[in-house]
Amino acid sequence: MYFSTFPKYLPCLLAVILLLPVTALGLPGDMNGSGRVDGYDLIMFGLANGSGTGDENWNPDADLDKDGSIDTGGP
Asked: Which of 28, 33, 36, 37 has the fewest CB atoms within 10 Å of its CB?
């Protein structure tokens, strides 16, 4: 009996899956919003490295610890 009712819900289920894309929100290190951390993010971080708020090459997405400066976080 369960299997006979499943197919009528299948179109609704497929519509929800296809119309609501699954994205990674707030992925640390994903600076370009691609849903993954890759070489492009590393390039963006490298270009902004050493900058601070107000600098020409400042990129707030590269400030991973949100301290107002872009650095590697090392000592």
From this structure: 28
